[in-house]
Amino acid sequence: MATTSSEVAGMAITSTEVADMATTCTEVAGMATTSTEVAGTATTSTEVADMATTSTEVADMATTSSEVAGMAITSTEVADMATTSSEVAGMAITSTEVADMATTCTEVAGTATTSTEVADMATTSTEVADMATTSSEVAGMAITSTEVADMAATSTEVADMAATSTEVAGMATTSTEIADMAASSTEVAGRATKSTKAVGRTLCSCNVFGNWRVVLPHQQQPQDQQQQPQDQQQQPPPLEISKEEEERLLMEF
């Protein structure tokens, strides 16, 4: 599946190709045009103000067009393709199903929503006023991106990795988990905090209004262990930290 969308000075063009199906939708000012080609099928529908025109050319194709008080409905069925378009007082809905592809486009007032499903891929795009949201899922990967005024958030999940990034005004937060590694970074005004956990090592670094404090696990040994005889200090045993001790250190910092 290939989808292309272009907008030039009030004109929006969307083109989708799936196997032997090509669909093009164009909106310019108060005019909406949809053209669909499937095998030997050509369908063109144009709506301008209160005028609805549907032109279809195919032998085994049935087309029905109805217009009732500002409402235009066009339904077309060709072999395994079903298309329904409805417009009621500023609302335009177009639904197309071809084999394993389902596409739904809805526009209400300042809202545009497009949803496409092809095999194991689902994509949803919504634009309302100054908010744009895009969500894509392919195999084991989910990506969501949202922009609202001065806030940007992106969430990505691929296999055993989860990442979330949020930015609001002067605050940036990023959290990533990959297998046995967890990292969090937060920055708010003059404060920065970072935490990293990787297998048998714990490192906490905190910067709170210019004050740094770094604590490593091997620096937390009891005082009597640091005053061992000289021969034991020269050959210390390997440092091992239990899971409970590691979690306690993380809670302290």
Features:
16-stranded antiparallel sheet, 8% helix, mainly beta
Question: How would you characterize this protein structure?
Answer:
The protein has 253 residues and is mainly β. It folds into three domains: 2-118, no CATH class; 130-189; 201-227 and 237-253, no CATH class. Helix content is 8%, strand content 67%. It is built from three helices and 22 strands. It has helices spanning 223-226, 230-234, 243-252; strands spanning 2-8, 11-18, 21-28, 31-38, 41-48, 51-57, 62-68, 71-78, 81-88, 91-98, 101-108, 111-118, 121-128, 131-138, 141-148, 151-158, 161-168, 171-178, 181-188, 191-198, 201-208, 211-215. The strands form two sheets. The protein has a 16-stranded antiparallel β-sheet with strand order 7-8-9-10-11-12-13-14-15-16-17-18-19-20-21-22, covered by helices on one side. The chain is elongated, with a radius of gyration of 29 Å. About 70% of the residues have low confidence.
